[in-house]
């Protein structure tokens, strides 16, 4: 006697046949895209001026992009030929996330219009149609069944919703692309990233940027669930040098898209913050040392450069050329790193963190007291060292606008391009150090110091080397930072504050992006500098929202935004042995064997 088992076909939250749900989603996405050609409000007082017909503007562009993305995913799920490459992993999960992103951005925009202009009466019929069509699109996407159906229908609606968003394994390629095609895909991906970043940073503060941020927070996971990010990661790993070159070329193109210095200065400060975070990543991410006073090394480099760069307030009265000031700042930070690290690096864990925190505060207080009253007149106390002159290299004055390739570049655009070169140098140092024998020894110490010592690694010497290297890299960034802000004051180098750079934000950037990786701290630093700068209107609520965001991140993605393989295995059950990859550290991962010598 045989027993027949029947399995209930998986369904989404809304009971619709699968093909019907796909058609509804596609039709709704197409209609939502069409509504961006209509006026959403009659008044131009709302930022972005959404009063035009057949000319999407402001947050209508976000809805337009979301509608097109949802439509493409829905058509790929329908099996349209030529679009299967868009969903190499899941089909329904990315469609649902894209529809959710479009719905959230559209409804946020309409609610913001009503609040800003005092009433729903200020909405035009185009806005009402956008609300209805985006809701229909989301309803159709919610009716899609999960990509991974195991025959068991989840009980509660929340369980069914999370099952619909579950990740699917990446399907193998049907055919290999030629190398030139893969390189073109990498270039197109970085060009799209530059376009998205430029749109976001140029967006007006307030509701337009919040709407853009809401959309990006949901749309990026949609690309991840589709498998596009995994495909791109594999391509960048194959063409590592091309990917790095494309990334720096895309970043260097940013000032050419700006007419003024309003947002170029934000880009220059992001690069400074990212460079310092990458130096901290050597200490925290590779060597596993918790440093809570790292911003002091940035301050040492900034003060050293300010004292020798020709400022009329400098106590030394020196005016070194830029290369000499750069070396002075790096050397001063390196010396302080060795002096502080030598007596303290025999400590471990919390004790080391307390000592480094104390060093950061001692530096700030010492700079306050070297004012000629409570100490020697070196730093001018709380007033700092102002009027640091602009850099001039081979007759190129960074304080004056210039034309490059016929395109005008403003003052901070010059410093932005200089920081691109400094960041490229720091990236090169980090990559070479991480892939070296010393880098593998650092990773061994981080994972298990006792085992590393038993293998013959000189733990203290290598920890001191990591501390000194991280300090020197921070000093390089500090030298440029002093010239960008034209002053060096103690208040700039605190442990915590509402605006970066400070030690708390630097450490958060490394953890947020992904410890031990190359691209992680760069992404984390960019987010932690850009978002507070664009959300300045929130004032005292910035730190509250920042804390909530960190709590959510540690709950749902404790390994960081761009983790290495080891961290993913540590924090998530993958059903496989906890064996790290055998690859050497690369642009996205710094994994190594614990068997290393120093």
Automatic annotation (TrEMBL):
It is a multi-pass membrane protein. It is found in: Cell membrane. InterPro entries: ABC_transp_permease (IPR001851), LivM-like (IPR043428). The chain crosses the membrane at residues 21-42, 62-83, 95-115, 127-144, 180-201, 207-228, 240-257, 263-284, 289-308, 320-339, 351-370, 412-430, 464-484, 504-531. GO terms for cellular component: plasma membrane. GO terms for molecular function: branched-chain amino acid transmembrane transporter activity. Keywords: Cell membrane, Membrane, Transmembrane, Transmembrane helix. Pfam families: BPD_transp_2 (PF02653). Its main location: membrane. This is Branched-chain amino acid ABC transporter permease. The lineage of its organism: Bacteria, Bacillati, Actinomycetota, Actinomycetes, Kitasatosporales.
């Amino acid at each position: 006697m045989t027993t027949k088992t029947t399995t209930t076909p998986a369904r989404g939250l809304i009971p619709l046949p699968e093909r019907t749900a796909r058609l509804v989603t596609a039709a709704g996405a197409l209609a939502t895209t069409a509504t961006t050609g209509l006026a959403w409000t009659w008044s131009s007082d709302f930022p972005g001026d959404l009063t035009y017909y057949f000319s999407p503007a402001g947050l209508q562009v976000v809805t337009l992009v979301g509608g097109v993305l949802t439509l493409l995913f829905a058509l790929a799920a329908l099996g349209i030929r030529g679009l299967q490459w868009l969903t190499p992993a899941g089909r329904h999960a990315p469609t649902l996330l894209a529809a959710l992103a479009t719905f959230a951005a559209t409804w946020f925009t309409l609610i913001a219009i009503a609040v800003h202009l005092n009433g729903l009466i200020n909405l035009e019929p185009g806005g009402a149609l956008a609300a209805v069509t985006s809701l229909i699109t989301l309803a159709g996407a919610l009716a899609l069944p999960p990509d991974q159906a195991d025959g068991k229908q989840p009980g509660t609606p929340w369980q069914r919703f999370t099952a619909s968003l579950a990740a699917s394994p990446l399907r193998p390629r049907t055919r290999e692309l030629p190398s030139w095609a893969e390189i073109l895909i990498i270039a197109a991906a970085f060009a799209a990233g530059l376009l998205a970043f430029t749109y976001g940073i140029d967006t007006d503060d307030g509701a337009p940027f919040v709407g853009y941020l809401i959309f990006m927070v949901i749309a990026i996971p949609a690309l991840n669930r589709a498998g596009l990010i995994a495909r791109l990661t594999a391509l960048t790993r194959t063409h590592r040098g091309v990917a790095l070159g494309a990334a720096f070329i895309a970043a260097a193109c940013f000032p050419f898209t700006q007419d003024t210095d309003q947002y170029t200065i934000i880009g220059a400060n992001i690069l400074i913050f990212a460079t310092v975070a990458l130096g901290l990543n050597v200490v925290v991410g590779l060597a596993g040392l918790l440093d809570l006073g790292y911003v002091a090394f940035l301050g040492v480099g900034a003060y050293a450069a300010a004292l020798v760069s020709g400022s009329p307030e400098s106590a030394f009265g020196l005016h070194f050329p830029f290369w000499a000031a750069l070396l002075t700042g790096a050397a001063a930070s390196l010396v302080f790193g060795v002096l502080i690290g030598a007596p303290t690096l025999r400590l471990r864990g919390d004790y080391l963190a307390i000592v480094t925190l104390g060093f950061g505060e001692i530096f700030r207080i010492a700079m306050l007291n070297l004012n000629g009253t409570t100490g020697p007149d070196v730093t001018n106390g709380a007033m700092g060292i102002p009027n640091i002159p602009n850099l001039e290299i081979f007759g190129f004055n960074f304080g004056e606008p210039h034309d490059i390739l016929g395109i005008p570049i403003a003052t901070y655009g010059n410093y932005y391009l200089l920081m691109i070169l400094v960041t490229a140098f720091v990236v090169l140092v980090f990559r070479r150090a991480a892939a070296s024998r010393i880098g593998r020894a650092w990773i061994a110490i981080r994972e298990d110091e006792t085992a590393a010592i038993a293998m013959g690694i000189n733990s203290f010497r290598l920890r001191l080397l990591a501390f000194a290297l991280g300090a020197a890299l921070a000093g390089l960034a500090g030298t440029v930072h002093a010239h960008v802000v034209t002053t060096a004051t103690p208040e700039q180098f605190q442990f915590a504050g509402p605006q970066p750079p400070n030690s708390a934000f630097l450490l958060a950037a490394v953890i947020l992006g992904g410890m031990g990786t190359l691209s992680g701290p760069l992404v984390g630093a960019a987010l932690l500098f850009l978002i507070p700068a664009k959300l300045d209107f929130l004032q005292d609520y910035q730190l509250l929202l920042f804390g909530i965001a960190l709590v959510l991140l540690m709950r749902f993605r404790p390994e960081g935004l761009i983790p290495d393989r080891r961290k993913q295995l540590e924090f998530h059950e993958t059903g496989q042995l906890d064996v790290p990859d055998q690859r050497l550290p690369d642009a996205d991962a710094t994994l190594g064997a614990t068997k290393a010598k120093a």
